[in-house]
Design brief:
By secondary structure, the chain is of the alpha+beta class. The protein has 1 helix and 4 strands. Strand 3 and strand 4 form a beta hairpin. It is elongated, with a radius of gyration of 24 Å.
Length: about 90
Amino acid sequence: MKSVFLLLLLGLCAHVWSARKEPAVEYMEIPGLKSLPVNAIHRIFQDSEGYMWYGTVDGLCRDDGYQVEVFRSDFHHPGRLANNLIE
């Protein structure tokens, strides 16, 4: 009886495993990559207004689809960013 149950359980596991589909992963080029100060991006975020934000080692970049604006730390504006490393 235990062996029949084990065979049924293994058959069910094999069926579930074979029916499992991998999620589709889509890769696409970042349109404003050439406008970024560096090409190494640490973080990517899209806000509720549709802006794409990229965290780099040389500042925070905001891409609106037309141009990329770079925000960096500045001695004249100490409240802006503590440093340029955005993780």
